């Protein structure tokens, strides 16, 4: 076990943040022991703040399909989980990812996992390259969607160059080479 991973594990067990990681939530350190902030920004819809987003990456940084990363959304208002799922699938459709049948399956899986949120709720999505997407609510595991194509499609909502939130994408990737 590498020293940073060992340190993160010990700190997690003790319930404290490691030096230099004071602002990194424990579940993010557990998933990504060498986590560093790639960038952060705010998503607004018609001027209303919906959420703050932060992209956490590992040692190798953000790599579209080959490196684990975590997108953390901190909600500024109440939203129904079903609405979050529906808007997510609409964005995936706009990007042209997946067939209609796949999108319906993905929508059902998101509706089953995504909870209603209130101001201050945080949902973290973990990209597991070539495998799945794992989700946390306020640091507690919600579930996993074991479908590599879904995982790619879901995170494309924010990170694909064709995203409808180009300004937020630029902020999330601000510290990437």
In short:
With 177 residues, this protein is of the alpha+beta class. The chain contains 6 helices and 6 strands.
SSE map:
Layout lengths: L2 H12 L11 H6 L4 E10 L2 E10 L11 E7 L5 H15 L4 H14 L8 E7 L3 E6 L2 E6 L2 H12 L6 H7 L5
Antiparallel strand pairs: 1-2, 2-3, 3-4, 4-5, 5-6
Helix pairs in contact: 3-4, 3-5
Can you describe this structure?
There is one protein chain. The radius of gyration is 16 Å and the shape is globular. It is an alpha+beta fold. Helix 3 (81-95) runs antiparallel to helix 4 and helix 3 (81-95) packs across helix 5. The longest helix has 15 residues, at 81-95. A 6-stranded antiparallel β-sheet has the order 1-2-3-4-5-6. The protein has 2 domains: 1-33, no CATH class; 35-172, Chalcone isomerase, CATH 3.50.70.10. The chain is built from 6 helices and 6 strands.
How many discrete structural domains? 2
CATH topology of the largest domain: Chalcone isomerase
Outline the low-pLDDT stretches: 1-21
Using the 3D structure, state the CATH architecture of the largest domain: 3-Layer(bba) Sandwich
Distance between the termini: 28 Å
CATH class of the largest domain reads Alpha Beta
The helix-strand sequence is: HHEEEHHEEEHH
């Amino acid at each position: 076990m590498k020293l940073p991973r060992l340190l993160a594990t010990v700190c997690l067990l003790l319930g404290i943040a490691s030096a230099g990681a004071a602002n990194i939530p424990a579940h993010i350190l557990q998933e990504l022991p060498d986590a560093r902030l790639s960038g952060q920004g705010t998503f607004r819809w018609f001027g209303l703040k919906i959420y703050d987003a932060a992209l956490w990456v590992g040692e190798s940084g953000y790599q579209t399909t080959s490196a684990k990363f975590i997108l953390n959304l901190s909600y500024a208002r109440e939203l129904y989980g079903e609405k979050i799922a529906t808007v997510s699938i609409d964005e995936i459709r706009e990007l042209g990812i997946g067939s209609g049948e796949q999108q319906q399956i993905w929508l059902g899986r998101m509706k089953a996992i995504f909870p209603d949120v209130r101001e201050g709720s945080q949902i973290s999505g973990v990209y597991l390259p070539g495998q799945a997407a794992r989700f946390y609510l306020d640091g507690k595991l919600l579930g996993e969607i074991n479908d590599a194509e879904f995982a790619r499609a879901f995170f494309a909502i924010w990170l694909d160059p064709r995203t409808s939130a180009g300004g937020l994408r630029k902020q999330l990737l601000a510290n990437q080479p």
